[in-house]
Design a protein that fits this description.
about 550 residues, alpha/beta, 8 strands
Length: about 550
């Protein structure tokens, strides 16, 4: 996976200068001491872009860098540079003529057949004269070298290097880092919002993909695969936002979009394999050392794992791949942990929604119905006379305890959510789909008093934007009173127009969006992710 990401980045380097800093960092990671690098382009560089001392071999290395493939025309231009690199003495206080050296031609692509033959003949002649030959580090060699040194390098562009190092060094867990990550990803992506050069945009996206991989791998190295997946999901959603906002051609963004999707699958499969290898942990997610904090931590832990397994299942279903392992693990988690239905904040609505969709996709309608019933009853306990509702999904999960204990912090005021909900549309959609009319009728009086909050975007950019400049947050009363048929009819709506067409091409995005921005969970797109049902629903 990492090799493919690096190859994509190398392929999209628009200029040789973009390789300078990463290449020098690569040399240092391999044990070289970089003595100098060229600051100008012209005759004075004498064919030596980078010069290093390699203590392991007790010799100097002279590097000439080239971006892209090397054709016959390139060779005619570069042959003089090669000659200068190999034969003109290097002038430096620490270098004495006669010191051992090795010349290396570095290119981010491949050598054309005629170039390989020409350089081979030059090297044969150098051997006969007892002179050092010219090595070639082409794309395949660079991919291997960058892979081996992946966690010792910075691929991010200069202006964001410090911010990247802060995110890397201060990484704790996704929930604590979410806002800083979101801002960093956004600032990095939109730094090139006005660039129209396609090669530069490709390089920008390829570099972002590598940077996202490094940050996600950082969480995994800390033993937190959950945060690694959450970080990747957030990064992918923001990548799609940037691409949609810039109205970018598919040919420019295709490789980065495909690789980031594969990166999510890569981490999800790691999680599935880890769960399969240790079923006892899946069967009991309670932390015996957690104390009273388990009241808040267990529901989050259960939801996080269930949603990620559900996401893996749904993505595999979209690609017509087998998902039996995910199905068994998901059912085990939900059946063994009633906390799945005991939401303590509406910011859990996205993870709950994904897990329920996965149950329906895998034919587990009885378990899905049971979860919807239990969640409905639990949800309504927080609404009614004297209640305070559940925290809205915009509030960080860490503030759930403050909300329920009604203790304000210095930075955030509490909001009374009694009879107000973002989750309710999802519950009503599933209630109609599963034919749970009696369960709804039992609570009709309270439900009919609820105020529904729902974000209704009109464009893809509004759908994906974290803080959209436009778009409509609607607040409306319960849609109908006393009519089950009318309610079911209302919840037959589907995504149409620009958003519907977008989801047709990128169906995974609604799933990722529900986890990155829970309040954007789209019940209108539900039918795309589940198999035909025998329920008397919609």
């Amino acid at each position: 996976m990492i090799e493919r990401l690096i190859e994509n980045w190398l392929t999209n380097l628009s200029e040789r200068k973009n390789l300078d800093i990463p290449f020098r960092l690569l040399l240092e990671a391999e044990g070289h001491r970089v003595n100098g690098h060229r600051t100008i382009h012209g005759p004075m560089e004498l064919g030596k872009d980078v010069v290093s001392w390699y203590p392991c071999e007790q010799r100097y290395y002279f590097f000439q860098l080239k971006s892209g493939d090397v054709t016959q025309n390139d060779w005619l231009e570069m042959e003089r540079q090669m000659l200068l690199m190999a034969e003109v003495p290097y002038v430096h206080p620490n270098y004495q003529p006669g010191d051992p050296y090795q010349s290396v031609w570095v290119c981010t692509g491949q050598l054309h057949e005629t170039v390989r033959i020409g350089l081979g003949l030059k090297n044969d002649e150098a051997r006969r004269q007892g002179k050092p030959t010219i090595e070639v580090w082409d794309r395949s060699t660079l991919v291997k070298k960058f892979r081996d040194a992946f966690f010792h390098l910075l691929f991010v562009d200069d202006p964001f290097a410090v911010d990247f190092l802060k995110r890397w060094s201060q990484a704790l867990e996704y929930l604590a880092d979410e806002e800083e990550l979101r801002l960093f990803f956004h600032n990095y992506l939109f730094a090139l919002a006005r660039t129209t050069q396609s090669r530069e945009v490709r390089r920008h996206l390829a570099t972002y993909t590598l940077m996202l991989t490094q940050l996600s791998q950082r969480y995994e190295s800390l033993g937190d695969i959950y945060s690694a997946i959450d970080c990747t999901i957030l990064g992918v959603v923001q990548l799609h936002e940037f691409i949609a906002t810039q109205q970018m051609k598919k040919s420019i963004s295709r490789s980065s979009m495909q690789l980031t999707q594969e990166l999510i699958g890569f981490f999800l499969q790691k999680l599935v394999d880890a769960c399969s290898a240790d079923l006892e942990v899946v069967e009991n997610l309670i932390d015996s050392q957690g104390g009273m904090s388990e009241i808040w931590q267990l529901p989050l832990r259960v939801h996080s794992l269930a949603a990620k397994l559900g996401l893996s299942l749904l993505i595999k279903a979209l690609h017509k791949q087998s998902y039996e392992v995910e199905q068994q693990l998901l059912c085990t988690i939900i059946e063994r942990h009633p906390a799945f239905c005991h939401l303590v904040s509406e910011c859990q609505m996205g993870s709950w929604w994904i897990a329920i969709l996965a149950l329906l996709q895998s034919g587990q309608e009885a378990l899905a119905s049971s979860c919807v019933r239990q969640t409905f009853v639990w949800f309504l306990q927080f609404h009614g006379k004297g209640q305070f509702g559940l925290p809205d999904p915009y509030q960080p999960y860490q503030l759930a305890m403050n909300h329920h204990m009604r203790v304000e912090t210095d930075t955030r005021k509490l909001q009374n959510m009694n009879r107000h909900s973002y989750l309710l549309p999802l519950l009503l959609k599933l209630t109609c789909y599963l034919g749970l009319r009696d369960d709804l009728a039992a609570h009709w009086k309270l439900i009919s008093q609820m105020q529904i909050h729902e974000y209704v975007p009109s464009t893809v950019a509004e759908l994906l934007a974290y803080r959209p400049k436009s778009g409509k947050m609607t607040v409306y009363g319960f849609p109908v009173t006393g009519s089950w048929i009318a309610l079911r009819q209302q919840y037959t709506e589907r995504l149409t127009g620009e958003i519907g067409e977008y989801v047709e091409h990128y169906p995974e995005m609604l799933l990722l969006l529900a986890l990155a921005y829970p309040w954007r969970a789209q019940w209108r797109g539900m039918g795309r992710y589940i198999i035909s049902s025998t329920c008397h629903g919609v």
